[in-house]
From TrEMBL:
GO molecular function per UniProt: cobalt ion binding; cobalt ion transmembrane transporter activity; magnesium ion binding; magnesium ion transmembrane transporter activity
Gene name of the record: corA
Functional note: Mediates influx of magnesium ions. Alternates between open and closed states. Activated by low cytoplasmic Mg(2+) levels. Inactive when cytoplasmic Mg(2+) levels are high.
GO cellular component, one term: plasma membrane
Source lineage: Bacteria, Pseudomonadati, Bacteroidota, Bacteroidia, Bacteroidales
Family: Belongs to the CorA metal ion transporter (MIT) (TC 1.A.35) family.
Entry annotated with the keyword tRNA processing: no
PANTHER family assigned: CORA FAMILY METAL ION TRANSPORTER (EUROFUNG) (PTHR46494)
Protein name (record): Magnesium transport protein CorA
InterPro entries reported in the protein's UniProt record: CorA_cytoplasmic_dom, CorA_TM1_TM2, Mg/Co-transport_prot_CorA, MgTranspt_CorA/ZnTranspt_ZntB
Cross-referenced Gene3D superfamilies: CorA soluble domain-like, Magnesium transport protein CorA, transmembrane region
Naturally occurring in which organism (per UniProt): Parabacteroides gordonii MS-1 = DSM 23371
Localization in the cell: Cell membrane; Membrane
Catalytic reactions of this protein: Mg(2+)(in) = Mg(2+)(out)
Coiled-coil stretches: 185-212
Membrane-spanning residues: 303-322, 334-354
Length: 360
């Protein structure tokens, strides 16, 4: 069943979750209607149902013999989000972290729970970058994902479940968590690689001094903004990720460590790519400024050549413009034509001299 689309941007500057309170609200920009789906699976099969937001106990909907994946899209219904968090044994402050897109990236491990707060980056069809706040709550055989919008962020994970990739339906929640994290990290890898490719295209354009470079400054600034978003989303996650490799609550079994190690390697690739982007941006700024100076120098050179050509002509015109009575040139029958000839010859000789000197 297709989820109802109800997303539009809206500034919530008046909402803040910075202070301690007994009730918190969504502090983001999206007005997506909260929608909850429950996917339950084991080795025998997979089943997905819609869950009503007014459900009194989400915990009672779970099946102890299956892995239960709650997909919560849209965080506008803060009461439902808080009830879900409380229902599975976490505090209101954890709900605050989920409802606050500005929250720092973190991986919090409890005795029987794990809460992961992070951000994903992706490009839309118009090649505009977006950053989405995502939270993952894992406890026992229950995995809950919270996303700001109803974009199909985890569509690839659902396809993996349907095809039982890597025997996913035969494993526990730890492998499902790995697939969810892989989707998020893959988006970071893709966006970082795209930014690097676009920066390399800008570099090729700047190296060709004859190309049109009118909007290169704004393009460099735009790519820098995109790079900062990716770096902001990936760097803290890389610092927090080792916690998953050392977890002791049993959610991630030892046989799954190679999968999580691979995810850590992908994160390292993102960090290396963003560092490469940073160096390219720095060199592009220098190259752009240098090209502007070169173009300015070329313009000044052409203006100087034109000025130099007209200096002797201006001198001649000034002499003949003094109108003294004893100027024989004024009485010559061909004086006007001779004057033009002298000026033309003077300009031509000046031009030939500058060409021989390779001044332009």
């Amino acid at each position: 069943m297709r989820r109802k689309e109800g997303t539009r941007l809206h500034r919530r500057r008046h909402i803040s979750n910075r202070h301690l309170s007994d009730k918190y609200y969504y502090a983001g920009e999206h007005e997506t209607v909260t929608d909850i789906r429950l996917t339950q699976y084991n080795s025998d099969g997979l089943h997905t149902t819609e869950v009503k937001k007014g459900t009194t106990s989400f915990n009672k909907l779970t099946d102890p013999n299956k892995v239960n994946w709650f997909q919560v899209s849209g965080l506008t219904d803060s009461e439902a989000i808080t009830r879900i968090v409380n229902d599975f044994g976490l505090h209101n402050l954890d709900a605050k972290d989920i409802l606050t897109p500005q929250h720092v990236v973190k991986i919090e491990e409890y005795a029987n729970h794990m809460l992961i707060i992070l951000n994903s980056s992706y490009y839309d069809a118009n090649m505009e970058i977006h950053s989405e706040h995502i939270s993952l709550l894992v406890t026992g055989n229950v995995v809950i994902t919270f996303t700001e919008t109803n974009n199909p962020v985890f569509a690839s994970t659902m396809k993996a479940l349907e095809s039982d990739m890597l025997n996913l339906r035969k494993k526990g929640s730890g492998l499902l968590l790995a697939f969810l994290l892989n989707t998020i990290i893959a988006n970071l890898v893709e966006t970082a690689s795209k930014v690097e490719e676009m920066l390399e295209d800008i570099e090729e354009t700047l190296l060709d001094i004859k190309s049109d470079q009118g909007n290169m400054g704004s393009l460099i600034q735009q790519r820098r903004h995109e790079y900062m978003i990716i770096r902001k989303n990936s760097q803290p996650l890389k610092e927090q990720f080792p916690k998953l490799l050392r977890t002791e609550n049993g959610i991630i079994s030892p046989d799954m460590l190679p999968v999580y190690t691979d995810l850590s390697d992908q994160l390292q690739f993102v960090i290396q790519t963003t560092e490469s982007c940073r160096e390219i941006i720095s060199s592009l700024v220098d190259l752009y400024i240098s090209n502007n100076d070169l173009r300015m120098n070329a313009i000044m050179k052409r203006l100087t050549v034109v000025s130099t050509l007209f200096i002797p002509l201006t001198f001649l015109v000034g002499v003949w413009g003094m109108n003294f009575k004893l100027m024989p040139e004024l009485d010559w029958r061909y004086g006007y034509g001779i004057a033009w000839g002298i000026m033309f010859l003077t300009g031509l000789l000046t031009w030939i001299y500058m060409r021989k000197k390779d001044w332009f």
